[in-house]
Specification:
206 residues; mainly alpha
């Protein structure tokens, strides 16, 4: 096993442990020492992979919400066609919405930033993350739905990103009016229809 593979396995243990501790104690009361104990690692091993708690939590969120780049890479390399691309998008959104613990952590981090708005560095990091998400999502849905206009693909990506976050909040709070699978299927069907219709009407009006 390579050093890279070992580090990947260790990070997975750390992230799983962090989610478990955060779920029990909340973000503010969770310490790196407790995460290390839950993961069965030393505190030093945790700090080898992550310089602080913020970086660790951000990695959890990033892995949960950053799915567009890896799908787009397969498409651009010619491994997948347009239909497969759309199926991959639906699959990744479904997986993200089903990961309630990650969604709760993501929402908690956003809430913390809103409350502590003076923490400019954290705010800037989150802003950069969302800019990258919107860009990568726009680059992903452009070939999926045949969007040629640069501005329009990023507008559509912003709508989709905001809607996914909103759905994640509902899933985390379990306040949706139908069965979870039905909600996710309806959400995917709605956007699978709404984005092409939006683009069609924009083109017709130009």
């Amino acid at each position: 096993m390579t050093a890279e593979e070992k580090e990947k396995i260790r990070k997975k243990r750390i992230l799983d442990a962090a989610l478990k501790v955060v779920k029990e104690k909340g973000i503010e009361k969770t310490s790196m020492r407790e995460i290390a104990a839950e993961a069965g690692l030393t505190t030093g091993a945790i700090y080898y992979s992550y310089k602080n708690k913020d970086e660790l939590f951000q990695d959890i969120v990033n892995q949960s919400i950053h799915f567009a780049p890896r799908i787009l890479t397969d498409y651009q390399s010619g491994k997948k066609d347009q239909k497969e691309l759309l199926n991959d998008i639906k699959k990744e959104i479904t997986l993200r919405l089903a990961r309630k613990d990650e969604q709760i952590l993501h929402l908690s981090l956003l809430s913390e930033l809103v409350r502590n708005h003076k923490e400019d560095q954290k705010k800037e990091q989150m802003e950069n993350i969302y800019r990258e998400i919107i860009k990568s999502t726009g680059d992903l849905i452009a070939p999926t739905f045949g969007i040629s206009d640069t501005k329009e693909k990023y507008i559509a990506a912003s709508f989709l990103t905001a809607a996914i976050d909103g759905m994640a909040m509902l899933m985390a709070l379990e306040v949706y009016p139908a069965h979870e699978k039905e909600m996710i299927d309806s959400f995917l069907d709605f956007f699978g229809t709404a984005i092409p219709d939006y683009i069609k009407r924009k083109n017709e009006n130009e």
